[in-house]
Design goal:
The chain is about 40% helix and about 20% strand. The chain is α+β, with helices and mostly antiparallel strands. It has one domain. A 3-stranded antiparallel β-sheet has the order 1-2-3, with helices on one face.
């Protein structure tokens, strides 16, 4: 993964336009965890619905991106805590670079 790789504005706009509802917009804005670990209260009882919502968002983004680009929810090693994995949205560029959203 290249640390200097930036996602062009038009690709970023495509990604943000794919969200439907407050939860998916919050995922893309970084307010909610891609793993669903932040679900609390009554939302925790509906974790399966939220998991489907995350999967649908990644699928919608993958279909909306132009050729060569791809989106995937992956486990990545967290920078701040050693040996801690996080689930993040990873965007693959046509050049083969991967950018964490």
């Amino acid at each position: 993964m290249s640390a200097t790789t930036k996602i062009p504005t038009e690709i970023s706009d495509i990604i943000t336009d794919c969200s439907k509802g407050c939860y998916q917009a919050g995922l893309l804005a970084g307010r909610y965890c891609w793993s669903g670990a932040g679900l609390q209260g009554a939302a925790r009882a509906f974790s399966g619905h939220y998991a489907r919502s995350r999967a649908n968002l990644v699928d919608r983004i993958s279909r909306a991106l132009p050729g060569g680009w791809d989106a995937e929810s992956q486990l990545v090693l967290a920078d701040s805590v050693p040996r801690r994995w996080r689930r993040e949205l990873v965007i693959s560029t046509p050049e083969g670079d991967e950018v964490i959203w």
